[in-house]
Design goal:
The protein has 306 residues and is α/β, with parallel strands linked by helices. 22% of the residues lie in helices and 21% in strands. It has helices at 96-99, 140-143, 149-162, 182-191, 206-211, 236-243, 259-264, 280-293; strands at residues 3-9, 15-21, 29-37, 63-70, 82-85, 123-127, 131-133, 172-176, 195-200, 216-219, 228-229, 247-250. A five-stranded antiparallel β-sheet has the order 6-3-4-5-7. A five-stranded mixed β-sheet has the order 11-10-9-8-12, with helices on both faces. The protein binds zinc ion (2 copies). One zinc ion binds next to α1.
Length: 306
């Protein structure tokens, strides 16, 4: 029996190494040989204690790999294709939402790493409708975070660029929270020719934010105007920054500092969706340390054990 290695969530919420049987993909599915998988706050949905009777789920929903086998009825994908899988594991194409073209709202769509095993493994399975094509020249570790964190903030930005009267080149955008999402949001905003204000607590993120393309940095814990910093100095954009940005992308729980901006701004991501009773940081920390400790190596050359 051929098997592959993975990391699964034990009933007590800890992560443990496991082996899964390497079976052919089901109808409409592909089997993917995983190259890399990112770690996201939403992994905490799966990395938590669960009933003994429930299967230990393999987390991970920012997976990049290569199609290794095709299930019955799969069209448009071939063995060897390089693909990515995000949180939405593939729409059904049959439900009422799908028939309206609302594939995100599909009522029969598995969440990768929550309802079905995810990418913290040498192999994974996914619906063909959940796949995106990944260019050969892009490194798996760079692409993986774009499949959830990047996709989320990119969509929020582009939505406000496309809408009538929306953002145009030179408009000021604030990115609140320079973490897993925010550090990508400010790079997208800069690439869209927007003036970018990075907002974070303390001065620790300033160097990173400016290096990644932010025009200004705001230490949200600072009380004076000196908290506004950036290479543009006292330019008109900096004055605009003091009066309020056109759009605010919140990627972290809002603090008191952001309320003046929220009055004027358009929120791309609701911070309330991040409020979890069980505390996601601990779960995510466990995932980050468990994967290398358990010896699961994710690389293109991984082969199943015979
Ligand atoms: Zn995610
Ligand atoms: Zn559907």
């Amino acid at each position: 029996m051929a098997t592959y290695r993975a990391v699964e969530v034990a009933p007590d919420g800890s992560l443990r190494p496991t082996e899964r049987e390497l079976v052919p993909p089901g109808p409409g599915q592909v089997r993917i040989r995983v190259e890399a998988c990112g770690i996201c706050h939403s992994d905490s949905v799966a990395v938590r204690p669960h009933d003994e009777a429930e299967p230990g789920r393999v987390p991970g929903h920012e997976a990049v790999g290569r199609v290794d086998a095709l299930g019955e009825g799969v069209t448009g994908w071939s063995e060897g294709d390089r693909v990515g899988v995000g949180f939405l594991g593939g729409h059904c194409g049959m439900c009422a939402r799908c028939r309206l073209g609302d594939f995100v709202g599909c009522t029969d769509q598995p969440y990768t790493g929550v309802h079905v095993d995810g990418g913290c493994a040498e192999y994974m399975y996914a619906r063909q409708t959940g796949l995106v094509s990944v260019p050969e020249e892009m490194s798996a570790t760079r692409v993986a975070p774009l499949l959830c964190a990047g996709f989320t903030v990119y969509n929020a930005l582009v939505e406000h660029v496309r809408q009538p009267g929306g953002l145009v080149a030179g408009d000021l955008v604030a990115v609140q929270g320079i973490g897993g999402l925010g550090h990508l949001a400010l790079q997208y905003a800069r690439a869209l020719a927007l003036q970018v204000v990075a907002v974070a607590r303390g001065a620790d993120k300033e160097e990173l934010a400016l290096r990644l393309g932010a025009h200004h940095y705001v230490d949200s814990t600072a009380r004076s105007r000196r908290c506004w910093r950036g290479p543009s100095g006292s330019s008109s954009s900096a004055r605009q920054a003091r009066t309020g940005p056109s759009s605010v992308k919140r990627t972290a729980c809002a603090g008191p500092c952001t309320s003046p901006m929220r009055r004027r701004g358009v929120t791309g991501i609701e911070a309330s969706s991040f409020h979890r009773p069980d505390g996601f940081p601990a779960a995510v920390r466990r995932l980050r340390t468990a994967v290398p400790l358990h010896g699961v190596v994710l690389r293109p050359a991984a082969t199943p054990k015979k």
